[in-house]
UniProtKB/TrEMBL annotation, chains A, B, C, D:
This protein's name: L-ribulose-5-phosphate 4-epimerase
SMART domains: Aldolase_II
Cofactors demanded by this protein: Zn(2+)
Domain of life: Bacteria
Enzyme class: isomerase
Organism of provenance: Hufsiella arboris
Family membership: Belongs to the aldolase class II family. AraD/FucA subfamily.
Single GO MF descriptor: L-ribulose-phosphate 4-epimerase activity
EC number(s) recorded for this UniProt protein: 5.1.3.4
Domain (Class II aldolase/adducin N-terminal) ranges: 9-199
One Pfam family cited in the UniProt record for this chain: Aldolase_II
Length: 232, 232, 232, 232
């Protein structure tokens, strides 16, 4: 029995949530789960339909993107996952989808404004859209550079991956992360929901104001602050 | 056997309607059911996923927001429910969701215009959007103040909670109520439907007129007036 | 065994299609089926949820709107159905819904332009929106007048109920009809589909042209003309 | 046992994917599967509901549109399929739907701009919208001419059917193709997804830029180029 069984199972279950939550069609998404003590992560094999997945088919990769175990080629976005795990030491799961509304915001190359408490329940800033990469980065080690593009975008805004667990990559689609794979997928679904409501808000009122600071603070802290009183 | 079993069961069943009617994702909603003779209500425990709910897990709270019975922490919005039960003596259920279209109207800080008979079948006025609270109210007893914000909004419009069983809280999301928990959830679903159709109406015709008074009166009265002829 | 069993069963089955086709929430719709030889129609009882319907609960009404058989009060829109059956001798079923997109067009008080062949497969004209009635008609015999409003709208456009099996009633919602109840419901679903695509078409291209006459003619005739070659 | 059993089964299964993927209501679509060695294709019978289909009911037609075997009349769009199979020697399946967003773009008579990598994963150009045909073509051999309209549109853009497996026919709806029937249906679903995201992108940002060339090239080649690394 493989020492990687725990993260294979975790990655498998989290990947299966994507179609269940209507976040992907066909194979347009991938989720990974990391084992920090072993320095590896389990990720979806590339191009395998969700109804043919199993925990055994997950591919084990280290944080430099090298395959450690598995009979399949890993997701084509594997290097992006590897870069983020290597540099962000406290995350345990990453999810990438082409969910409809979040992807439309990424294609529009706009940050998603913070319009309401649904957004503030999860973070305190506009969801940033990282700009498309330079032609050199794209034609070079593309998926690897995507990881750095994501990290640079957060760094420029003085945000840590704990402050904000979701981002849009311009012209591409969203990436989300969290303490484990299930939380990363949860964040994918929350982002899709926020993205749809933000577009509708602007359609209802093109001058809709950003959420006021006091309300951002209140909602975030009641869920995440030292005196939080949400959940059990 | 607890004397609260009836409202625990009622609150449980009404909460389970939220995902069934596509009004929530994850734990983004809560419903309560009141027992007027006992002076308490049963409400969803905070942050517990719908597929792990049971009637036994409902929390019993009095109209001052004090926990009377239950092993779980109640919904973070419990004080809003308590305030409304305390001051509106004829309501028996309250529902709070972050349903997509109603929340988008709340975020846009606009009242929902009465455009058609679907709306007039349920009430005779634009659905009001209560303005965001002051910073003092927000940083103070926030959920308690949300209840007063809702009541003040109705009072200023000379509306009773029987005239109108639904409201938007600016930047936040909708609250609905009714004679019992099931009716409150019904109103959440109706509001979501009205909210979607109102946005579409404005998109089809930016100059769409409000419903004329005679038609508002007719449709409301055929369902709710002394000579109503809708239903059995 | 009642002589009305055939139309009770037909009306029951057609009513049950409404939630299956996502054309109604709760009780926001009603379908009827006529028996021309007996001069009556079977219609949904008012306000009864679809999951509690049965063929036995259908109400039998004559073409003047008088109840002939049944333990329940018929749909509040019964008189509209009666008027249409009485004056349009070749229709055998009527369907009324508050489906989202068709209702939004009705609320916007605009005809639905004929933009494509999906529309032309079913009729050759813009779907008309009958204007809201006068205050006198509304405060008088409202549902009865709604039937005349529908007939007048077709008459003014020189259309017979065979030319066009669907209409919007301004500020209210769509009515559709056909040779039987199932066909009437089919038309409700087609209208909802056309209504959604027409709004999207205008959003993609505000100057989208109406379908050209030759294409309208071709598509309608290949399905409905003397030399039709659609279907078996 | 018929020598056509393989393509009948293939066409049947691919047709059944259309309702499963929410690409059709009622009978608004048809898929065919070709057998190049026999010079025929199997196609859906006209107007038969999907829940009454079976492999046996598929109709066998040659590349001139002549029926070879079958008890039913073939799809009214059969000649369009025949023309494409006859002239495009490397395709093995064709799918035609009236899916909501793709059809709205066809009705708007606009090409779908390439805004993101979801689009570039499948092809490198804006999805063209073939202009509506002349009145002569429409009143003449309409479905046959539709095939030529599609081919002409690709030829004018110097595109082969391998470069681009999807197109919009102005005022009508999309056609897609591929190496087999399943791939053609896959392309129908991808096109619908791209069509929805493109509209949303323009709504979020009316000045959203087209995807840059380096990113188009990268995403297409990682899936389809000689050094592709997507899939197994």
């Amino acid at each position: 029995m493989s020492q990687f069984n725990r993260i294979k199972q975790e990655a498998y279950e989290a990947n299966m949530l994507l179609p269940k939550l209507n976040l992907v069609i066909f194979t347009f998404g991938n989720v990974s789960a990391a084992d920090r003590s072993l320095g590896v992560f389990a990720i979806k094999p590339s191009g395998v339909p969700y109804d043919q997945l199993s925990a055994e088919k997950m591919v084990i990769v280290d944080f430099d993107g090298k395959i450690v175990e598995g009979h399949f080629r890993p997701s084509s976005d594997t290097k992006t996952h590897a870069v983020l795990y290597k540099h962000w030491e406290n995350i345990g799961g990453i999810s990438h989808t082409h969910s409809t509304y979040a992807t439309a915001w990424a294609q529009s190359q706009r940050d998603i404004p913070i319009f309401g408490t649904t957004h503030a329940d999860h973070n305190t800033v506009d969801i940033p859209c990282a700009p498309p990469m330079t032609d050199e980065m794209i034609s070079g080690n593309y998926e690897y550079e995507t990881g750095f593009q994501i990290m640079d975008c957060l760094r420029e805004k003085n945000l840590s991956p704990a402050d904000l667990e979701m981002i849009l990559v311009g012209n591409h689609a969203p990436f989300t992360w969290g303490k484990n794979a299930e939380k990363a997928v949860y964040n994918s679904a929350v982002l899709e929901n926020i993205a749809q409501m933000a577009l509708l808000t602007e359609q209802i009122n093109p001058n809709a104001p950003r959420l006021k600071d006091s309300l951002i603070k209140k909602h975030f802290e009641r869920k995440h602050g030292p005196d939080s009183y949400y959940g059990q």
